[in-house]
Amino acid sequence: MKITLLAVGKTDDSRIEQLTQMYVDRLGHYINFDLEIILDLKKTKNLSEDQQKNEEGKLILNKLEKSDFVTVLDEKGKKYTSMQFADLINKRSVSGLKRLVFNIGGPYGFSPGVYARANSKLSLSDMTFSHQMVRLFAVEQVYRAFTILRNEPYHHE
After folding, report:
1. CA 10 to CA 84: how far, in whole Å?
2. Which residues are CB-contacts of 66 (< 8 A; sequence separation ≥ 6)?
3. pTM reported for the whole predicted model
4. Helices (H) and strands (E) in the chain, counts
């Protein structure tokens, strides 16, 4: 199985980008992991929020394959403990799934088309975080899941 994190918008803080890349690199020891950035739309000043979500949604949908299991990171999604999330990743990996895709939307969230394509919704917290921080948290949690599955000392219960 391959895991892809699709994220709308470039990180403009090099420190967050470096930390995120550190976990992406660590994940290479466990699984084929890819962080794909969908560049911010240009000339959004004349677009409504819905128009911007729809344009970003088209870019997201173009990156997906029919066989992908797609999870959107959404505040209304299901919440998991790190142990439950590790179990979820394990179940997906042994199911014969080719690619598990996590999506982080743009500043206004996802288009109806992306929600319709999604197989599940995942919430990292009831709190709101910047999209840049969500990227870091999501990658770290995937890394943590693999250390849990391998009984490595990174996670403490």
Report:
1. 30
2. none
3. 0.94
4. 5, 5
Q: Alpha-carbon distance 118 to 72, whole Å? A: 6
pLDDT greater than 80 at residue 118: yes
Nearest-CA neighbor of 56 among 98, 12, 115? Answer: 115
How far is 152 from 29, CA to CA, in rounded Å?
Answer: 13
pLDDT at 45 over 80: no
* Largest pairwise CA distance in the chain: 51
Question: Tens digits of per-residue pLDDT, 119-134?
Answer: 999 999 999 888 889 9
With a CB cutoff of 8 Å and minimum separation 6, the contacts of 143 are: 23, 26, 27, 30, 154
Helix, strand, coil % over all residues of the chain, rounded to 5: 40, 20, 35
